[in-house]
Amino acid sequence: MALWIQAQQLQGDALLQMQSLYGQHFPIEVRHYLAQWLEAQPWDAIDLENQQEEFKAKRLLDGLIQELQKKAEHQMGEDGFLLKIKLGHYATQLKSSYDPCPLELVRCVKHILYTEQRLVQEASNASSPGSGPVDGTPQKYQQINQTFEELRVMTQDTENDLRKLQHSQEYFIIQYQESLRIQAQLSSLASIPPAERVQRESGLQSRKSTLEVWLTREANTLQKYRQELAEKHQRTLALLRKQQTVIIDDELIQWKRRQQLAGNGGPSEGGLDILQAWCEKLADMIWQNRQQIRRVEHLTQQLPIPGPTEELLTELNATVTDIISALVTSTFIIEKQPPQVKATIISEQQAKALLKNENTRNDSSGEILNNNCVMEYHQTTGTLSAHFRTMSLKRIKRSDRRGAESVTEEKFTVLFESQFSVGGNELVFHVKTLSLPVVVIVHGSQDNNATATVLWDNAFSEPGRVPFVVPDKVLWPQLCEALNMKYKSEVQSDRGLSEDNLVFLAQKAFSSSSNNPEDYCNMTISWSQFNRESLPGRNFTFWQWFDGVIELMKKHLKSHWNDGAILGFLNKQQAQDMLMSKPNGTFLLRFSDSEIGGITIAWVAENPNKAGERMVWNLMPFTTKDFSIRSLADRISDLNHLLFLYPNQPKEEVFSRYCTPPNSKAVGDGYVKPEIKQVVKVENDPMLDTEGEFDLEETMDMARQVEEFLRQPMETQWSGQQS
After folding, report:
1. If DSSP codes are grouped into helix, strand and coil, which group holds residue 678?
2. CA–CA distances in Å: residue 434 to residues 342, 346, 349, 437, 465
3. CA separation for the pair 281, 302 (Å, rounded)
4. Among 457, 460, 458, which residue's Cα sits nearest to residue 474?
5. In sequence order, which residues have a C-beta less than 8 Å from that of residue 506 and are 6 or more positions away?
6. 693-722: average pLDDT
7. d(CA 134, CA 258)
8. pLDDT attached to residue 266
9. How many Cα atoms within 13 Å fall on the side-chain side of residue 527?
10. Partner of 490 at 20 to 30 A CA spacing, among 6, 309, 546, 578?
């Protein structure tokens, strides 16, 4: 509310500029009575260029309406009665205006608050009365802003009419296709018996006649809609041209004249903010109308109907182009003609040639669909950016691979190009930039290897390198830093890899048994060790194993990692050494050495085959597939012999909040909802392998049988038991 208090103290031109911010689109009374609420909302947190943010804007709109209604309800007495009616009217008006496009409300309020803040700041910093912005009379400001409001309403009106035309035309096409279908049915009647043909032909002819009458009438209606819409666009463009003349030929020329006089010692010419805001509004209005006209052209081409509309559209196109040209060429301050950006995929060799300024025109290594995009201006940041929302790779041309290089090691890059002009084509710039390297894959199974290539390149490439040279070997601590960064990012956790975790990874990467971190500080690891050669005794690489851990964690076990419940990076011997000093029922969770993306439960318990002896058991690893059926917390809860999470935490304290609530026994349709539970048998169990690991297949078979039984209606279950 502090900003509004200061804004009310503005004087002279600053006060007039502040007042010009308000109108039917946002009444000044709303700003006054909801000042504190408006200034407390997170308007700047909403990205106006992101349509997915619309739900946030909708919440702000709903909140604004509720605050207005609440303020209206609290008005009492004779004076309060009139204000109550007025505020209620504003609530209805704003809801009607912004409900279809809540982001426009955010844009409006952000502009108001930003401008007020600027005006207050300028007033506090002003050193003399003559340093104010554009000198204008209240009548002139009011007239310009009223005209903009009128143009906004007219443009919204034609947008609504265009949507109505589009919907009517779509329905017309559907009905026209229906008439073609009926005609096809009539043509096929020749192959059926005469008696049946006469009966069916009569009904089809009747439907056809009715539909043809409707189509004729609707075609005339569509033509009328097109004609009326074109005439409305004519009136809008005429008013746009008039408004543009006032701003450019009057206001801008006056500003330039004051600038001339200032060069001779006259008063300052003032700021350009108001002129720029007006010109940006003009550009937006012109562009919206141009887009609408283009859409009408598309509809006309989609469904040609003879009439004068085509000639009118040609005239409208020429008019709007002339207006745009006048706006761009008449002033340098709003040259907002957005350049186009083109994207092309090129190979590593082509990228090298490009940086050497060799002729690579029209060279590419594939075909990208939707690779042209118009850059968009972001008012809040003052930047131009392009969003390739539908770009996709249709075809790729691979080069000959070198040695043991696989397709997932071949690097490409996306070349972005743009050309734009400054000063009415006086200067033309052709700019190019390369994306970071990309790897093209054709199947999801190649994703982890491609990710390894990109990770290695991002982590170890040097500034200014020749594309895309990276070292074949790096120090182990360098790789540790990259792995830790990747792990924390993917798992979205502040808990990264500890020193013990990194020692475990070093042991795995180098097939070493040393537990001393210092032993690995000066060791180097090659790309082949990282993701080309399989680990000893395994059919997967070091990276593939580590990437499997990441996938498992981020999909199912993120919360447990953040809680510290998963030690993870331990081998079987380490787990045994840790558990044997703990009471029976103590367990820990470690990542499987033998399976990608697997995690196992190790626990200490009595040896059922040898009295008085204890041993450590290891459950066969769980994978993503298993946790899609039943969560880790539920599985641990099911196993009653698991009592304490290492070192000594009761398992309920750690996992109970993640467990699935028990199902109610009675269901309204007579069925009991099935439930799968983890079961492990220990004593003389055939599922026990030679290394103390359990196979869950028989356990799951038992669960499936229970599930099939529970799928039967309750009466059938009980009657079957009684018989």
Report:
1. coil
2. 12, 9, 13, 8, 13
3. 32
4. 460
5. 476, 512, 517, 520, 523
6. 43
7. 10
8. 40
9. 18
10. 578
Query: Using CA atoms in the order 371, 376, 380, 381, what is the torsion angle rounded to 10 degrees?
Result: 60
- What's the alpha-carbon Rg for the chain, to the nearest Å? 36
At 586, which helix (H) or strand (E)?
Answer: strand 586-591
Contact 624, 551 (CB under 8 A): yes
* 336: its two tokens: 């907002």
Which stretches within 492-601 are classed as H helix? 499-510, 527-531, 542-552, 558-562, 572-579
The reported pLDDT for the residue numbered 623 is 92
Q: How many CB atoms lie within 10 A of CB 360?
A: 18
End-to-end Cα distance, the chain? 79
In the numeric block, which tokens belong to residue 319?
């008019």
What CA–CA distance (Å, rounded) separates 15 from 656? Answer: 62
What distances in angstroms separate CA 626 from CA 572, 599, 630, one per listed residue?
Answer: 21, 10, 6
- pTM for the predicted model, two decimal places: 0.50
Taking the C-alpha atoms of residue 617 and residue 604, their distance in angstroms, rounded to an integer, is 6
How many other β-carbons are positioned within 10 Å of the β-carbon of residue 669?
6
Is residue 194 scored above 50 in pLDDT? Answer: yes
For residues 625 and 513, what is the distance between their CA atoms, to the nearest angstrom? 32
Extract long-range pairs of 147-154: CB within 8 Å, 24+ residues apart. Answer: 147/239, 147/242, 147/243, 147/246, 148/243, 148/278, 148/281, 148/285, 149/23, 149/24, 149/25, 150/239, 151/236, 151/239, 151/240, 151/243, 151/285, 152/25, 152/285, 154/232, 154/235, 154/236, 154/239
Assess contact for 523 and 548: CB atoms under 8 A: no
Helix axes of 12-20 and 138-187: crossing angle, nearest 10 degrees: 20
* 3-class DSSP assignment, residue 462: coil
